[in-house]
Specification:
GO molecular function: hydrolase activity, acting on carbon-nitrogen (but not peptide) bonds
Organism: Operophtera brumata (Winter moth)
Protein name: Chitin deacetylase 1
Largest sheet: 5 strands, parallel
CATH architecture: Alpha-Beta Barrel
Number of strands: 13
Oligomer: single chain
Order of helices and strands: HEHEHEHHEHEEEEEEEHEHHE
CATH class: Alpha Beta
Shape: globular
Keywords: Signal
InterPro entries: CE4, Glyco_hydro/deAcase_b/a-brl, NODB_dom
Helix content: 25-40%
Amino acid sequence: MKWIIVLALVGAALADSEEFVTVTFDDGVNVNNILTYRETLYNRRNTNGCPAGATFYVNHEYTNYQLVNELYNNGFEIALHSISHQTPQTYWQEATYDDLVKELADQRVQMSHFANIPFEALSGVRIPFLQLGGNTSFQIIKDYGLTYDCSWPTISYTNPGLWPYTLDYASIQDCPVRPCPTASIPGVWVQPMVSWSDLNAFPCAFVDACIFIPDRDDADAWYRFIVANFERHYLNNRAPFGFYVHEWYISANPAVKQAFVRFLDLINNLNDVFMVRFYHHEPSV
């Protein structure tokens, strides 16, 4: 418990600092969902003049690598989401070290080649279905020179939210999707998925996984719902606020899309809020 207390105290000291918003999308990039990304994300800027960031966790199946390259060249982060994204979910729970090397380390090589993205720029991981496999995937992050994982929800540390941390010390973060890592794996970062609260206070890591939600045709109610979850971070210890979603949910629900765009317009006009990528790669000169 002591490390969470320390993090909470540090977070309290940061309550007057900048608020980071991390917008992420999962799965393949194709000619259909690129239209949503172009319409909602392109040409956005934070109030400091820097481009607004977002992160795409991309798997191989149904992916158009030319469009992945377009996303990267528009300033967005591309991260790893496995080659196969296969079912059942238990595959990821039981995957061996060698299985995950083929899914993640090999995907980094594949993505760099086919999307023409610098190898070093591909540094993040999200495991399909958020199904952790204990220490294994985190050990691969370390062994293969990656930087962070964003597959681990927290439902216990949401108010105040949990800040990113390293596994230099074994984590005591709660484990909603078992098994979670138990070892100290120095240098590997955890970007915890701080859960939202739906209208009945049930937790949901992905926006599209929330159960008790506003009417999907009510853009104003959805905007208030998003802002209420954002303010739990912004008016508290300012742990990064994650808007984790699958594109289909945005495009299939025009009112939700309208609320999403309205929310992005709001934060892009706040002087102390910044849409960021998890990882920023400076190209070598």
